[in-house]
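Late entry, evening session. Most of the bench is empty. Finally got around to the prediction I had been postponing all week. Sequence below, unchanged from the version circulated by S.P.
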Amino acid sequence: MDFAKEVYRNIFNPRDKVIKWGEKNNYPNLIINLYESVPEHSAAIDFIEGIITGNGIEEIDYWLYKKIVIDYLLFGGFTILKTALRNGTNNYEYIDISKCRLSPDNKSMLYSEEWNRTKVETITYPIINDKNKGSGIFYFKSHRSRGIYPTPYYLSALQSLDTLNSIIEFHNTSAKNGFSPNVIINFNNGVPDEDTQSDIEKSIKEKFTGSEGQRFILAFNDNKDSAVTIEKLQADNLDEKFTDLQKFLQNEIIISHRITSPQLIGVKTENTGFSKTEYQESLDVFKETVISNFEKELDYAMSLLIGAQPNKIV
């Protein structure tokens, strides 16, 4: 899937009551899947979140703020339900942005637990900003965003993340299948009708392969006197090719997160030594060049949400 293009494909059908987030209205779930499946990626996101969150900020509950930061890093934005109380204060409640969709006029936010159902049940909230008082959804997206939905800062690495995820799935299925090689399966006892061929192929797939596992070529022949034959297809140096590709993709992901040293997130490098001083120097540079920019934007977002500049994040 071309993730870089998919993020901008926000589609509105007059029959729908929302603007789809991605062509199939499933883009946030694809982002979540990559976060949950690719270790280097999740390690980088969690590492950055931990530094930014620190001890939190006084005006916002600590755990609420952690969720805000995670969504900001994962998706490039976040949503918070702000409720004005009678005593003049406000209550802030976390709303999962991955389950939110915009109305066609961009004035409301619709929330649903499951957007892929035929009949979707939604809750509609008005959208508020720094000029609005009262209750509603505070919707913030990073300055990097180009469309009506937020854009993750690591956008350039989405294809690499997807490819690495496929490699992980391939190895997982290979292990379950006993690392059996790709094969050609010849049925030499006649050619069945198309429905039967499809049933046979489906049965073989379910029993011996996975979504990203070993592949096979299925052939039906007229010679009824011959038994079924199986021919192995073994690619040359396939393991080495996967290893080289995996290292390349890993490097692309680390670059997209602007990690000054892979060892900051637990990725070993060719150099065997990495002293405490080197770690601290890499961390200091990372905070100055990357974290500070995230903090400034989040500080701005919090000032819009709570109506005042919050204390500097520790």
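Two things to note before I forget:
The chain has two domains: 3-153+290-306, 161-238.
Residues 276-306 form the longest helix (31 residues).
Will write this up properly tomorrow.
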